[in-house]
Structure formats: structure tokens, C-alpha cells
């Protein structure tokens, strides 16, 4: 039987209690919980705080509600969705399926509870405990979109993830959700998710990979400037299934509109410029150093250097420490 959102949230609260109570004696637990609630941390924030006080107990994480995922994706006009327990990389699997002719429809999604060889930009590898993240890849046809405009896809996907998080976290009351050019999603100034877009060879299909940290604890985070949804101050924590479905809905809607207009930059750029924390920050991209001042029509980042404007279309962009972008975020 499919569990209700309320039931899932109750299970999440029970999960937290079972995870934190063995850590310390009851009076310390009570003191920390009272202090944390007063600070507006929420129950998942309590778990994160307690985990730093002593040994971290194994957390029992809840799997995706597969019937709800299937129904929700089909309602959002995906042609197919599959959830697997474990794989090396959802992007690799879906790309191989596209190239091998196994995927012959638009909007086909592959979700995994765990990736053992997840890939980020510049060939970086990453992983996390099972059921601690949202891991999904979507194959989307890009017929009719000029090749020069495909660089807008990571920005478009970022807007979709941002809109989904704003929806499920109850913005604008919650932490600020921003986008760091070209593929990072930030929550409260820390990286909560990333996007990897890859094109299939010899076919007009893009595979959009999305990863979002859901309930990683502080000691499980890959880098110090990362976070997860559960570590941010919030009210009722949405379930992982609810977050996944919100991302799927917003991504499908963004793709349909953008492709219907031939990949028009006007669909993406005005909103992306407002959400992009890189704009206004001093940045470094390889040998290019200067202030990020705009996003070009092809999705590239326009950097004002001492020698004039330079458009960066790929590579690593680092925000210079001590300099804040328009959303007040300094990061690497």
C-alpha cells in the first residue's frame, strides 16, 4: 500500500528519534532539542547537531514511494520512469540506452536509490549512503534547438530544481535557494545539488542528471561548503518522494516550453540572471579572472577582466573568497 505524505513524515520523525536517542543521555538530548527548536532548526537539524556530539549511529533511511513516483511522472507527461536500487551512474546508464536504441521516446527518467560511480562536471566522482539523495537522469529530445543554444540546458535544469525546492520548502520563508553558474544549486549559500548535462552522440537527445542531498548528516557531506535539505532550518520536512516529484514536474514544464520556442534564450536568461549568485562576484575560471557581470545568449558566463569582457562557456568557476555575489554567497 502506498504511504501517505503524513505517514511518511511521521516515519521520518520516528527515524530521527531512533537515530538520536542512543547518542547521549536523556538530559543532554532534551537540552539540545530545546535549544535547537528555539533556534528554528527542526528535527533533522537536531539530528545533525547531535551527530557532532559523539559517535554517529546508522540512520534508517526511507526508500522512494515507487507507485507515487510512477503515477506522478506519468501525470507530468514523462513516457517512462524506472527506479533502481543501485547503479553505477544513472547518466551513464541512460546515455548507453539512448545510444543503443533502447530509448526511443521523449522524457524517459531513471532514478536510483544509490549510485556507486556518480559523476559530476570535469569527471569528478562522488557517492553517498543509499536513500540519502535524490538521484535522477532524464533523456529529453532537443530536435529543433540550435546547437549553440544547448549550453542553456544546465541553466534551465537549475531553474527547475530551484523552483521545486522553493515550492516544497515553503519559500520565501525558508533559506535562500540560489544558482551558481553553471550547474550548482545552493541552499542558504551552501551546495545542496548539482546538474550534469550530456549529449548523446549521433542523436538529438540530451541526458540531464540531477542530484540533490536530502538527509546527509554533517559527517557524510563530501565538502565543507555542502549541505542537505534536512540540515537547513525548516518547518515540516517534505519527503524525498515529494521533492523528487516536484523536480520532475518543474523540469518537464521548463523543457516543454523552452523546446516549443526553439530553445529561446528569453525563456531562460531573465529568470536565471535573477537567481544566479555568480553575477556580481569576483570569479576565476582557469586563466580568466574578473567580475562576473552577465550570462550570454549561449549560456556562457560573461566575465569583465582587466583586458575587457570574456565569455566563459565551460570549465570550473570559483568565486573568490571574501567577495559576495548578489545573493550574499561566497563559495568555491
TrEMBL record:
The keyword Ligase applies. This is biotin--[biotin carboxyl-carrier protein] ligase. It comes from Corynebacterium heidelbergense. It comes from the Bacteria. GO terms for molecular function: biotin--[biotin carboxyl-carrier protein] ligase activity. Its EC number is 6.3.4.15. PANTHER family: BIOTIN PROTEIN LIGASE, BIOTIN--PROTEIN LIGASE. Gene3D superfamilies: 2.30.30.100, Bira Bifunctional Protein, Domain 2. InterPro entries: aa-tRNA-synth_II/BPL/LPL (IPR045864), Biotin_CoA_COase_ligase (IPR004408), BPL_C (IPR003142), BPL_LPL_catalytic (IPR004143). The keyword Ligase applies. It is an enzyme of class 6 (ligase). Pfam families: BPL_C, BPL_LplA_LipB. PROSITE patterns: BPL_LPL_CATALYTIC (PS51733). GO terms for cellular component: cytoplasm. Keywords: Biotin, Ligase. Residues 76-259 form the BPL/LPL catalytic domain.
